[in-house]
Design brief:
Rossmann fold, two-stranded antiparallel sheet, 7 helices, globular
Length: 188
């Protein structure tokens, strides 16, 4: 079985739930993908890291860092960074805080000293719905002087996030779309 198919099985087994859920965006949905149930599993973490790393390697320019908003992206950035090291092409990880650090450096970005100033970075997320979280992350990362060259997710719910990001010049790459994962297109 290939890695992508195995990750799909893990996502459906560990992360996918049906019911009525309120999403971060405030919308309600008849399904929920709790990505952390898969990204915090040893095999799931490795597979997410491997498949996101492959998306990053497809980018035309070298990506010099991989990051995302805490907490959803934390296991992903670590997994991608570890896979990159194992592949002898290390990409440092960084984490974007929801609020600036209230003491010490006051940073929004942890791991910044491992990054090349002004470098091209990839942002990752476990699940994308409207793209709102990623827009905040992009603003914070670019305000720190880095360039966002790639935005990638494990699951694109196909609820407008890819379009919002594309309008701002950041095409979204997904390991799985909603349709690929659960076999049904968005009804709204």
């Amino acid at each position: 079985m290939d890695e992508r198919q195995r990750l799909k099985e893990l996502l459906l087994q560990k992360s996918y739930r049906e019911g009525t859920f309120t999403l971060t965006s405030g919308k309600t949905s008849d399904f929920y993908v709790d990505g952390k149930q898969t990204t915090l599993d040893a095999e799931g973490s490795y597979l997410c890291g491997r498949l996101l790393y492959e998306l990053i390697q497809e980018h035309t320019e070298p990506i010099l860092g991989v990051g995302g908003m805490t907490l959803g992206a934390d296991p992903l950035v670590t997994a991608v960074s570890l896979v990159s090291y194992l592949e002898k092409s290390p990409i440092p990880a960084f984490i974007v805080r929801k609020e600036a650090k209230g003491h010490g450096t006051g940073n929004y970005i942890e791991g910044k000293s491992n990054l090349h100033p002004g470098g091209l970075v990839a942002l990752v997320e476990d699940v994308v719905t409207t793209g709102g979280t990623l827009i905040k992350v992009i603003e914070r990362v670019e305000n720190e002087g880095f360039k966002v060259g790639l935005v990638a997710t494990i699951v694109d719910r196909q609820e407008g996030g890819a379009e919002v990001l594309a309008e701002k010049g950041y095409p979204l790459k997904a390991v799985f779309t909603r349709e690929q994962l659960i076999g049904k297109a968005n009804q709204t």
